[in-house]
Amino acid sequence: MLKLMKYELRKTAFSKLVLLVITAVAEIAFLIGVFWKKDNILAMGIIFLVMCTIFGVIYIGIESVNVLHRDLNTKQSYMLFLTPKSSYQILGAKILENGISIIMAGAFFAALAAIDVTVATLYIGGLKEMINLVSSFMEVNWSVTFTPAEAAFYFFGLLASWIVFIVNADLSVILSASVLAGKKGSGIAGFLIFLVISSVIGKLLDLIPVLKSMELTFVLYIAASFAIAAVLYVISGWIMEKKLSV
């Protein structure tokens, strides 16, 4: 499994390197803006860091779906399916590598944001004052209150949701390349199935009760998300094992 994960990582290593370089450039711009008090450069650095965070995590997931689509619909990775590995192992390596990449990217950007906020707020009174300022602004303007712990759970809850989204997309790709292969409109049918499953998943996650402890609520949400992703993985692996012809 580890060798398969390394193989999957090599397929997407270049794009991750590009993302890291762009992030480094944005971080340098941010630090120049902070230490040299260049407001325009600071603003640009912040904008690009936010864009790297959002679009970087999104792209990591979408790229994995594209890689799976190419593996199943072209000859470029046919050797992968000739190895003595089951479909569960091949798909599991893809999902694990992508899930770990998404979580690590999220943790990296969260840590970088924490460091940057700490550095920036040294100039306006400290980190606690900055958090209070942001919290007060959101409460007054949007009636939203949060603690740093809740903000972290919101962030990683979104990452868990994104992983479920990607595993569901993988399932639709597998259906298009196996059960629906050769049929007219197989791509559209796979996409419609994806939308239906996404709707069902959304309704299931909405059933999670809101507890007095928001942190516990988010733990349940994240656990439920990973449980759903596991179910989708088992279904996808079974389809690949029984129905796929590469």
Automatic annotation (TrEMBL):
Keywords, comma-separated and alphabetical: Membrane, Transmembrane, Transmembrane helix
Keyword Protease: no
Signal peptide: none
Residue ranges crossing the lipid bilayer per the database entry: 12-35, 41-62, 102-124, 151-175, 187-205, 217-240
Stated name of the protein: ABC-2 family transporter protein
Organism: Blautia faecis
